[in-house]
Amino acid sequence: MASGSSRHGDTTGNTIIEPGAVTLEAAEIARKSRALARLAVGDTSPEDRIRQRCSVAVGDFAMAGLLRFNNSPVEAGIRAIESSAPLFTDIRMVQVGILRAHHSKVNCALDYGLDMAMEKKITRTSAGFMSIGKSLDGAIVVIGNAPSSLLAICDMIKGGIMPALIIGVPVGFVNAAESKELLRTMTVPSISTEGTRGGTPVAVAAMNEIIIMYREACHDKRPGDGV
């Protein structure tokens, strides 16, 4: 099994279920929600853990059947976090929702490319990722809302830029399904959803479960192995 992957059964042992649940009531809610998700979704792989968290995030176990995993994205994401690779999100809601239990910087595409967006009359998120350019090499990209930015990144991949992982789950009726279908044709490690469904909760949930698995891998290291 690849380094950082969960062993069968880990999700019912000492797994970090919800780092933000700091009170007894919050921890109990998180525990019960995850127990229901394990029963409904399954619990045999790291991908199942992401299916569980995303289902809980949207309150619908149907989400589990919509998730697609291409080119070993869980392992790729854990390796990227281990190396402190930067994260780039499409919008602020995704940026704010990502756990900070790591050493990677979490950036937002909206902080880049405003002049390009105005000049080319394209979306700010697309222009932002295009302006980031080569800095996307080896980075993690998390898109929950902007299909146009996912299409732009797919074009950039065709041009030779290769992120470490793309979580591409834009929601909506215009280019959302098509952008995710295109992503799944790429060789980049990716997590996506079929069809029009997705959004910030799914993007954040998928990324945060990978971060939690990274933290568990850190705790599992023997003294002297480093973190």
Structure summarized in a few sentences:
By secondary structure, the protein is an alpha/beta fold. It has nine helices and six strands. The two termini are 19 Å apart.
Structural description of this entry:
The chain is α/β, with parallel strands linked by helices. Strands 1-6-5-4-2-3 form a six-stranded mixed sheet, sandwiched between helices. The chain has a domain at 65-220: Cobalamin biosynthesis CobH/CbiC, precorrin-8X methylmutase (Rossmann fold, 3-Layer(aba) Sandwich), CATH 3.40.50.10230. Helix 1 (24-41) crosses helix 2 (46-58). Helix content is 46%, strand content 10%. Mean pLDDT is 89; it is low at 1-13. The chain has helices spanning 24-41, 46-58, 73-82, 92-97, 114-120, 124-132, 147-158, 176-183, 200-220; strands spanning 67-70, 87-89, 106-108, 140-143, 165-168, 190-193. It is globular. The protein has nine helices and six strands; from the N terminus they run H-H-E-H-E-H-E-H-H-E-H-E-H-E-H.
